[in-house]
TrEMBL record:
<dbReference type="InterPro" id="IPR005269">
    <property type="entry name" value="LOG"/>
</dbReference>
<dbReference type="GO" id="GO:0008714">
    <property type="term" value="F:AMP nucleosidase activity"/>
</dbReference>
<dbReference type="InterPro" id="IPR031100">
    <property type="entry name" value="LOG_fam"/>
</dbReference>
<dbReference type="GO" id="GO:0009691">
    <property type="term" value="P:cytokinin biosynthetic process"/>
</dbReference>
<protein>
    <recommendedName>
        <fullName>Cytokinin riboside 5'-monophosphate phosphoribohydrolase</fullName>
        <ecNumber>3.2.2.n1</ecNumber>
    </recommendedName>
</protein>
<dbReference type="GO" id="GO:0005829">
    <property type="term" value="C:cytosol"/>
</dbReference>
<dbReference type="Pfam" id="PF03641">
    <property type="entry name" value="Lysine_decarbox"/>
</dbReference>
<keyword id="KW-0378">Hydrolase</keyword>
<comment type="similarity">
    <text>Belongs to the LOG family.</text>
</comment>
<keyword id="KW-0203">Cytokinin biosynthesis</keyword>
Length: 198
């Protein structure tokens, strides 16, 4: 089933390269152009805000999910969203974003972006969802991560079948094409049997 909504994880800062801002705007525009709903963290700052603004300018539907404690910072909450869900914690935020979304994309970002990407990938590995996951690899930002994944496979910590659990492209349009064609990205792991169980 093709996705109708896409969750994007990305930085609350702009980053050091103009390509990151260009990529955020291009991704927001592309999601809206395809008639899809953008789901994201609900703030007005950094790449997150720029992406949401671009999708809204294209006439798209944009849904934010924001913890209550961010409301104390008036610069953070985006005022122009189609919907804003207020939640109690960061854990609830991630669960709500996952519930509202049919696919996931990680753009360049910091520790929060990495944590969201790996948690949603782990949930897929455990069979908690079967939704495609993509990396918008602007300026080869995720090249080192892909190399680390390869290292983990080579060292026996990740099965070869999981060496590349993400769709990956520097172009928002090409990445969206991959996600809209994708089936189930990861099958659940089989449980590891202890010797006494065999």
């Amino acid at each position: 089933m093709e996705p109708k909504s896409v969750c994007v994880f990305c930085g609350s800062r702009m980053g050091a390269r103009p390509e990151y801002l260009e990529g955020a705007r291009a991704l927001g525009t592309e999601i809206a152009r395809r008639g899809l709903t953008l789901v994201y963290g609900g703030t007005s700052v950094g790449l997150m805000g720029a992406m949401a603004d671009a999708a809204l300018a294209q006439g798209g539907k944009v849904v934010g999910v924001l913890p209550h404690f961010f409301l104390s910072d008036r610069e953070r909450a985006h005022k122009g969203l189609t919907e804003l869900h207020l939640v109690d914690s960061m854990h609830t935020r991630k669960a709500k974003m996952a519930e509202l979304s049919d696919a996931f994309i990680a753009m360049p970002g910091g520790v929060g972006t990495f944590e969201e990407l790996f948690e949603i990938t782990t949930w897929a590995q455990l069979g908690l969802h079967h939704k495609p996951i993509g990396l918008l690899n602007v300026a080869d930002f995720y090249g080192p991560l892909l190399a680390m994944m390869r290292r983990a496979v080579d060292e026996g910590f990740i099965p070869e079948t999981r060496a590349q659990p993400f769709a990956c492209d520097a172009s928002p349009a090409a990445l969206m094409d991959q996600l809209q064609r994708a089936g189930q990205p990861l099958a659940p792991d089989k449980p590891v049997l202890r010797p006494e169980q065999t």
